[in-house]
What does this fold into?
Amino acid sequence: MEVYQMLWERPEAALEAVFDDPWFAALAAAEHELSCATFDFYRGKGIQTLHLPVTTGSISSPMGFGSDSTPVKIQLFGQPVYLADSMQFFLEFGCRLMPKGCFYIMPSFRGEAADQRHLCQFYHSEAEIPGTFADVKVLAEEYIRHLAAHFLAHFGDTIHTHAGSCRHIERLLALGKFPSVPYREAVSRLREIPGCLTPSPCGAPSITARGERALLEQFGGIVWLEEIDQRLVPFYQATDGHGGAICGDLLFGPGEVVGAGQRCASGEAVKEALKAHEVSGEDYAWYIRMKECRPMQTSGFGMGTERFLMWLFCGQDIRKFQLVPRMNGRREYL
It folds into this structure.
């Protein structure tokens, strides 16, 4: 059993082994490098960071059509609140104060059980800027390239030691514009491959992890999945008027690593989207009001940092990329 597996299964027995295993020192250093490179990137763009709480009354992945996670609801001093799955709404708030946009790296809490591709608690690197999906797509690609180049230049030997090669990083950096595929075309490509599509409650087929891997094989290891059926995405994504959302997921490594999208620009558009997704607007009154009093077109993206590191080190299990494990329903030793 590898030490990271012991850390997840029997953490009380793994503490000393962690200190003796060179992987964990490498992971801690990689987390540091990712944070430094992220702040350097955004400083160069004039995009500012925000310090935000980890609790919210307005969860960004609500139950309803388009929800991709289960929220974590807690009682805090007698009041029901959520541990944030994302603070995207407050990044939109920040765009009304910071003219070039804003970003953060902060924890994200999800109600699903951990597995090889999912963590219960992970770190999100998220940004929001004034502009369209096309604008934020350029920003996201620049960010990924910046991280890849930084790690290759400053951390290449460590990556080679643990991954066996840096060729995947070099291939990404050698690419021009990242390829893209519309959702409807992707579904058509995957329809005859077993296990790539699964029914969803809203009626539009969802692309499974196997489906993501099949698309990556078809597109050389990285691809934007765009124009996703609006019923499969959260309510806050703008729509194209033809059943598609103005958004995209960037697939590479383990699958979806980046999710990006253009937001509803007005309060009325948010109200219509909430109704279409069968989500109560009660918890989003302030969000609607913000868009009524300060209409603004913004777009943003979020990247799971552990998923990026999983690609960077050619990992097969995301649980290897968390220094301090957290599992829902278990009191942790560490």
Q: What stands out?
A: The radius of gyration is 20 Å. The mean pLDDT is 95. The CA atoms of residues 67 and 144 lie 26 Å apart.
